[in-house]
Amino acid sequence: MTAHPAPATRQLASAAEASLHAPSVFNTQPWQWRIAGDTMELYADPDRQLAATDPEGRLLLLSCGTALHHARTALAATGWTSTVDRLPDPTQPTLLARLRLGHAVPADPEAQRMAAAVSRRRTDRRPFGDQPVTGQTLTKLRRFVEAEGAYLHVVPADQVPALAVSTERAAGAQQDDPAYREELDRWTNRPQWRGDGVSPETAVEPALRRVPVRDFAPEGNPGLSADGGIDKGAAYVIVFGMTDRPADLLRGGEALSALLLLATADGLATAPLSEAVEVAWTRHLLTSLLSDLGEPYIAVRLGYPLDHEPLPPQARRSPAEIIRIER
Ligand SMILES: Cc1cc2nc3c(=O)[nH]c(=O)nc-3n(C[C@H](O)[C@H](O)[C@H](O)COP(=O)(O)O)c2cc1C
């Protein structure tokens, strides 16, 4: 007969469940967890890699990093230490992290605020209003990103046109690629039972924006209106790192998660923008915005939406599909 799982296993399973809410490219949720005793392993799921949009698997690694950070945050918020070994076995490149549960400690209040934001956070593609994001908020976000081992570039106003052009050119190149169009079509028309993909309900109608937003409703049925704001007060940031090695991209994803959760906890709306990093030559344009000092991982739009109507949650896969507990 199977015994009840040990307390350590229960803690880890509940942290892995928190990671189901993590953001991922096209909502592919390309990860798997395996739990044994006090150890939990994160695996990339290469079958969920987007061959046309993400041929090198950079966005897959960023997505897995957000899941890892969500799980770490859930543990810290319930008062557990943990240690993480990233890419621990060179012979198993899909084994991205081995997380070992430590001991009980007083819960970390900052982690509690971020954990409370996990189920509230949404990618908000609506236009943001005029209220600016303060320098103080951006400084705090930068500190959190740096604590995760990545860097944050706050795009100054005179660089926003370059970000816009890079994004627009990347989107244009992708629209000319039948393999991209087929992939987008597949991930925006998912049967509900799959619990993944981007539903047109969360897509916004095409409109003039400071930086274009990906068209997730290519059939022309977006659920969100673009009326009322032009992203005037939005801040644009780029999460970047020193290399595009898997361990650094994984940390980039952890930093992205920290940024999104902290911003949500502080009342900001957030929307990742990755088109410009998906196409090699526009990614190089972004590198020049970083004074050629790093490797751009992803851009994010931050701000205050005019419309406060809560956004529908995007579907998620079930824990049974993603978490395996060895007994
Ligand atoms: C690596 C990565 C890249 C993403 N790129 C984009 C993007 O280019 N445009 C966009 O609107 N959303 C983007 N997203 C957001 C995802 O579409 C979103 O996380 C997913 O659909 C789940 O929805 P949720 O964030 O509301 O939970 C990205 C997310 C991640 C983690």
UniProtKB/TrEMBL annotation:
InterPro entries: Nitroreductase-like
Superkingdom, taxonomy of origin: Bacteria
Molecular function per GO: oxidoreductase activity
Gene3D superfamilies listed in its UniProt record: NADH Oxidase
Name used for this protein in its record: NAD(P)H nitroreductase
